[in-house]
Queue: 2 jobs
Job 1
Amino acid sequence: MIQPIYVYDQQILEQPCPDVPHNSPILTNLIIDLWDTMRNAQGCGLSAPQIGVSYSVFIIDSKSVFQSIGTAFRHKYYEPDDKGITETFINAKLLQTSSEIWTAKEGCLSLPSLVRDVSRPWKIKISYLNQNLEKQECEFTGLTARMILHELDHINGVLLLAHLLPFSQKMLYFKLKSIKNGKVKVTYPTMKKQKLVA
Ligand SMILES: [Zn+2]
C-alpha cells in the first residue's frame, strides 16, 4: 500500500533504527509498502523510517536507473559487468568501504527538490538479509553502492545534509524551511510535522 513519505524535520528521520526481529508480523507488509511507495514516487531507494517505521529495512532499485542512463554515460556510474539491482535489505551492516571516493549528485524523497553533490566510497561490502531472510554478504560498486550508503544513512538517522559543508547547509535555510512547511510541491503523498493546536 502506498504510504505518505516523511519529509525533512520529522523526528523519525533523525533517529537510528534498530534491527527488525525476523519474526516481526509487520515485515511482509512493510516491504510491500516500501516498494509501492517508492514506485509511486518514482524513486530509486527508500528506507523504513521514511514511511514512519523505525526498523532497519530499505530497498534499492539501481536497475531502472541503469536503464534510464544513456549508454555513453553508464561507465561513470556502473562497472562494466554491473547492470544494477532491485533488492530488499534487512538489518544491513556495512563491513568495508574502499578508499576510492567519488562525487555525484544525490536527491532524497524526504528532501524534495534538493539535489546536491555528495562524496562516497566507490566500493562497499555489506551483510544483510534479503526478503526471504537469507543471509547475504556482497560487494557493490558505483551507483548501487552510493544508493545503499544513502539508505544506510537513513537507518542511522542521517540525512544527506550531513554530508554538506556547514556553509552549504546555511545556504539551504530557506529551501529547508519551505520543505518542512509543505511549500515544495511533490507528486506523492507526504507526512509533515503536525502543528500543535492549543
Ligand atoms: Zn533519502
Note: The pocket of zinc ion is lined by residues 108-110, 150, 154 (CB under 6 Å).
Job 2
Amino acid sequence: MYLDDILAHNKQFVGSNQYEPYKTSNLPNQKSVILTCMDTRLIELLPAALNIKNGDVKMVKNAGGMITSPYDSVVRSIFIAINALQAEEVLIIGHKNCGMQQLDPSIVMEKMRERNIEDQHFQAVQDEGVDINEWLAGFETVEQSVANSVEILTGHPLMPASIPIHGLVIDPETGELTLVTRGYEQ
Ligand SMILES: [Zn+2]
C-alpha cells in the first residue's frame, strides 16, 4: 500500500539522518511568499527555476494558484506570511497548460456523481450558500487569472502598500518565467 511505502521510507530517512541537508528555520531567508499551483510538474522545477532552496520562502499552493475571494484561505496564509513570518514580497505564479484553464465545473460534478454523490448532496452545498459552479470554476487564461489574483490582493484593505505583489507565469516544461505584473511599479 502507498502509505506503508511512505512510512517504510520515512523510517529509513530519519534513521540515517538524511534530513541533515534540509535543516533551516521557519522564517523565509528570501523574505517572500509565493502562491502557485499544485501541479506535479512544479514540485521541484519551480524552486530550481527560481533558485529557491529549503528555508528560502513561504509557499502556498492550490489548484490553479488562484485567489478566489479576498477572504479565502490563500489570502489568510499570505497575511500570516507577511505579519507573522517576515515575508516582504508576494509572488503569484500561474503556469501554462494548467488543469484549471477552462475547467468545466459540470465535468467535475459528473465525476462526483460517478462517485455516488447524489443530487441531494449538491443541494446541501447550495443550501450552504455556495454556488457550486462558481466554486469549482477554473479560469479563461492564466495571465488573466494571475492579474485577477494580484488585483484582489492589491485592493485588499489589510494589504500594506509597502509590500510589492508580483504576477508571473511559469512554463512547466522549461521553467521559463514571463512577467505579468511587476509589483514595484504599482
Ligand atoms: Zn496548474
Note: The beta strands are 32-37, 57-62, 89-95, 165-170, 177-181.
